[in-house]
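Morning, I've got a small favour to ask if you have a moment. It would help a lot if you went through both lines with me. I owe you a coffee for this, so here goes:
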Amino acid sequence: MVRGRFATSISCIDGRIQGPLSAWIRGAFGVDYVDTITEPGADKRMSMPEIAGQLRAKAVISVRAHGSRTIVVSGHDDCAANPVPEAAHRGQIAAAAAVAASWGTGAEIVGAWVGPGGAVSRV
């Protein structure tokens, strides 16, 4: 039996954002652990069906095995894999969250932006 409460993060591979994002998720959703699924430029790549399918399969494991009740899809400032302005990221995050919502996991889907210095805000 899994002990503790889990959320799931679908984020970029960039190591600069992992700590701040995980801390924000734990605090915002009252969880003990964050299962982390990474993909370069995840917010943009969620629009690609093949990539989205791979990410979905991983998120389903988190939901089923760990009881994750929240999936956070994020984008971040200074992304090497997706070098677009913040406004474009925010649009991609919203679209990525809609893709995740279509997966039917039963989890709450949340978009998040990680700005300069690791400041996290909900999208």
